[in-house]
C-alpha cells in the first residue's frame, strides 16, 4: 500500500491566537491519505480554516498561512461531487466502504480491465491484438491521417475492431454479473476512447450514465499486474504545496 506520512499529532482544530484560528502544525498535514481515512486525516484541516474548491473541482485549496497554500487532491475513487461546497461537505460524504469500480486501461493493441469492489479485485481480463504498423502507429490512426495503406492494413484493422469488441463485451459481462459500477476509471488515448464510445452495442456505462474519471498518470502497456498498482494509486489522495 502507499505510505501515509504523519508528523507529531496536534489538537483538533489547531490553535487560536487573538481569537483567530491558526493552521495545524505542519507535521499534522498528511502527504497521502486513503479514501476511507480521509475524514480522520483531513478533519483537522477542515476545522482550522476554509478550503476553497478549485474552479475545475479537481482539488481543494487550503491556506495554511499568508505565504503557504496547499492543494488537497481527493482520491480518484472519491472525487469532489457537484453538491460539495467545501472540504467539510466532502468529508461528510466520505464512504465507509469503497463501491464498485470498473478500471479500463487501453493502448493500441492492448487492453486490461479490472472490476474492484469493497477495495478488492473481483476480476481482471487482458486482451492483446496486433494493430501497430512497423513505424509504431496504430493502423486506425494511420488511416485517419494518411489514407488507405497498401500493406497489410486489413488484418490490423480487423484486429483493432476485434479488440474493441472484446473489451466492450467483457464490460457488459461484468455489468450483468456484478451489477452496475459506481464509477469507471480510465487510462486511454483520446482517439481510442472515442472509438470505444462509438461501439454498437454501446458500453454499458454509457446507457447507465456512470461517471467516468480519467487517470492522470502516464502508464506502460496495460497488464493485469498494472491494474492492481493503478487501482491502489486511485484510492489515495495527496496534499502538496501549491506551485
For this entry, give a set of tags.
243 residues; alpha+beta; Nucleotidyltransferase, domain 5; 2 domains
Please provide a written account of the structure:
This protein has 243 residues and is an alpha+beta fold. It folds into two domains: 16-96, no CATH class; 100-231, Nucleotidyltransferase, domain 5 (2-Layer Sandwich), CATH 3.30.420. It has seven helices and twelve strands. Residues 1-22 have low confidence and may be disordered.
User: Strand pairing plus helix content: what structural class?
Assistant: alpha+beta
Return the domain count: 2
CATH class designation of the largest domain: Alpha Beta
Q: What is the succession of H and E elements?
A: EEEHEEEHEEEHHEHHEHE
Range of helix content: 25-40%
Q: Care to give the gist of this entry?
A:
With 243 residues, the protein is an alpha+beta fold. It is 30% helix and 24% strand.
Topology:
Elements: E1 16-17, E2 20-21, E3 32-34, H1 38-48, E4 51-53, E5 60-63, E6 69-73, H2 87-92, E7 100-107, E8 110-117, E9 120-128, H3 139-146, H4 153-178, E10 183-187, H5 190-197, H6 204-207, E11 212-214, H7 224-234, E12 236-241
Parallel strand pairs: 7-10, 10-11
Antiparallel strand pairs: 1-2, 3-12, 4-5, 5-6, 6-12, 7-8, 8-9
